[in-house]
Amino acid sequence: MITDEERRKRLRAYEIAKKNSIDRGVELTPETEEISKRFINGEIGEQEFFLEIWKLLGAPASLH
């Protein structure tokens, strides 16, 4: 469980990252959106969030 303040921080960071991605011409996939939503809501932690993102990017298991 995370605090409302932590949830707000995570949401703000997500919004900035999403805007930066769009500015670079990169659209987030539905899978990325779902992982981000779970992270923002505190369903998964930072380590699992990045692990899932790396998997989506096709990174070799040795990098996970």
What does this structure look like?
- With 64 residues, this protein is an all-alpha fold.
- 66% of the residues lie in helices and 0% in strands.
- The protein is built from three helices and no strands.
- Helix 2 packs antiparallel against helix 3.
- The longest helix has 20 residues.
- The protein is flat and about 35 Å long.
Secondary structure elements and pairings:
Layout: H1 4-23, H2 30-40, H3 46-56
Instruction: State which percent range the strand residues make up.
Output: under 5%
- Distance N terminus to C terminus? 24 Å
Output the number of helix runs: 3
| Biggest beta-sheet profile | none
Unreliable parts:
none
What is the arithmetic mean of pLDDT? 92
Give Rg in angstroms: 12 Å
Bulk shape? flat
Helix/strand/pairing category: mainly alpha
Number of strands: 0
What's the helix-strand series? HHH
* Helix share bin: 55-70%
List the keywords.
single chain; 64 residues; flat
Structure described in brief:
The protein has 64 residues and is mainly alpha-helical. It has 3 helices and no strands. Helix 2 packs antiparallel against helix 3 (46-56).
